Amino acid sequence: MAVSLKKGQKVSLTKNNPGLCHLVVGLGWDTNRYDTGGAFDLDAAAFLLGDNGMVTRQEDFVFYGNLSHPSGSVEHLGDNQTGEGDGDDEQIQIDLSKVPSNISRIAFTATIYEADERRLNFGQVSNAFIRIVDMDKGEELLRYDLGEDFSIETAAVFGELYQNNGEWKFNAIGSGYQGGLGALCANYGIDVE
Fold first, then answer.
1. Cβ contact 3:159 at 8 Å
2. What's the mean pLDDT in 31-46?
3. Sign of the alpha-carbon torsion through 43, 48, 50, 55
4. Which of 18, 51, 56, 182 is the most exposed place for a label (fewest CB within 10 A)?
5. Strand, helix or coil at 18?
6. Cα 99 from Cα 192, distance rounded (Å)
7. pLDDT tens digits, residue range 61-70?
8. DSSP string over 44-101
9. What are the beta bridge partners of residue 4?
10. What is the CA radius of gyration of the chain?
């Protein structure tokens, strides 16, 4: 049975699942029924980070414009431009055995495409969640529902996988940012043009 996490909670993934290797990270959301009626396009991304919390190279940013990491460890399964329907809106596959040794964390984020132009923010998003599934067993390991803590933010860090003493763990973060994708990229050391 999946573990349901609260903001700030950390849980080991590999301690009780020896040999865990292939994960699907699913992110989902709905648009608030009180929204502007405009189109919402949320974009999931993964930032592969070193010990300093920064990318080591530009390719460590996996998103709709760079669907797979050169190592083969992280693959984005494509951009859902509407968020319609139930379940995961976007998915990212992880192969823990291929994560480069200089990567200690993988942060999972979502941003609202053209948020400022469309006057959209995470206050208009509801039921946002991140979940991790053991791909080999088809079993959900954990889920974190972000709640309704957001107002004017246009980007959010849902959570992160991180290595600690040889184990892979998950940290439920749920932090919002103003400034959208640009602010997130700057935070993780990505040059934005």
1. no
2. 71
3. negative
4. 18
5. coil
6. 24
7. 999 999 999 9
8. EEEEEE-TTSS-SSGGGEEBTTB-B-TTSSEEE----SS--SSS-SEEEEEEGGGS-T
9. 143
10. 16
Mean pLDDT of the chain: 88
In this structure, how many other beta carbons lie within 10 angstroms of the beta carbon of residue 10? 14
At residue 94, φ and ψ (nearest 5 deg) are -125, 135
**pLDDT over 70 (residue 38):** no
Distance CA 26, CA 133 (A): 8
User: In the prediction, which pLDDT does 161 show?
Assistant: 97
What's the pLDDT score for residue 122?
A: 85
| Closest C-alpha to 128, from 179, 181, 89 | 89
Please state, in angstroms and rounded to a whole number, the distance separating the CA atoms of residues 138 and 43: 24
For the record, the structure tokens of 66 come out as 């760079």
C-beta atoms surrounding 3 within 10 Å? 15
pTM exceeds 0.85: yes
pLDDT at residue 37, rounded to an integer: 56
Q: Which of 28, 39, 33, 129 is nearest to 86 (CA)?
A: 28
Q: What tokens appear for 7 in the block?
A: 């903001």
Rounded-to-10 torsion of CA 138, 18, 157, 102: -130
Which residues have a Cβ under 8 Å from the Cβ of 148 and sit 6 or more positions away? Answer: 126
State both tokens at 131.
């979940």
178, 121 Cβ separation under 8 angstroms: no
CA distance 126 to 106: 24
